Amino acid sequence: MTETLAFLLDNSSLLVMWGALVMQWLLPIPAQLHPLQFWQQLAILVADKVNKPDDTHRQRQLSGGLAWSLMWLTVLVLLIALSQLVWIDSIFQLILLWLALEWRNTAKLSKRFIRALNREDKAYCRQLLEGLLNRDTRNLSLLGLGKAAAETQLLAYGRLVAGVLFWYALAGGIGALMYRLAVGLARAWSPSRQRYNAFGLPAVRILAILDLIPLRIFALLICIGHNSKTALQGIARQGESWVLPGPGWLLAAAGHKLSLSLGGPAIYDQQKMERPRLGGKIAPAALHLAQIEKVVTHRLLGWLVIQTALILIFQGAF
To answer: Are 69 and 61 within 8 A, CB to CB?
Structure first.
């Protein structure tokens, strides 16, 4: 026991990672009370002040870039300064990673939606997706709800778990939390909504850069196993056709692996947006969402094993 404790203390990065994973399962923060919800609300308030509809497209895009820099860099400077003052750095890093991770809440929401879709409860399905999508869910059919849920499910696990763990490995708890803040800004200022069509472009483009490596790695992990060749071929054919390359790879990989139809037209702010069609021909139903949940969970556990081994190697434990 003493040797195990000493080993973990000598490998603080590993202790922080697994400690944060355990904490977010045992002490989950309710979604409505999560600090990052207030961050997105603050982002909307800032946008209301500086995103002027009378400005030109270029001016609104510049305003978006400046607003993003002001909010994101201010928090980064504060966290770096705070890290110099804390007594126990491991606890500080653990708290930041705990705040950034969103595995348990994503899993709970996914399971609730699967049960609701299985009993064809459209009202509850729409309610569950309403806070997660930037598009109107009121007129979505069961087929549309299933497709929207599959895309949301994949991107939530990709960003809020795999992406967070990736940036933790590169830049510690501060890197993990700053990535989550970038995800929050891109969501709050999504260009898919008319009022942010120019203002939100810098936030989305920055997130696309941050997503590029972790979501592609996660997509390749998704490909492993059954239908791996089909999934890889799907990435090669369709992965770059999506609006953003990281999510494109992930959706194409899962869609082809499970023969699910993803993407396609969607309505934002009462306007139809044409999106590429990805994957196979089967419209996602409750059964298929359960399959996604199973595949994603197994691949995330594999991600943890790989990241644990890499941390041990780079910290000189082997």
So the answer is: no
Q: Count Cβ atoms below 10 Å from residue 123 Cβ, excluding itself.
A: 9
pLDDT at 317: 45
In angstroms, rounded to a whole number, what is the distance separating the alpha carbons of residues 227 and 250? 15
* CA–CA distance, 106 with 53 (Å, rounded to integer): 35
Give the model's pLDDT for residue 181. Answer: 97
Whole-number Å distance between alpha carbons of 27 and 238: 39
pLDDT (tens digit per residue) in 29-83: 887 888 888 999 999 999 999 999 888 999 999 999 999 999 999 999 999 999 9
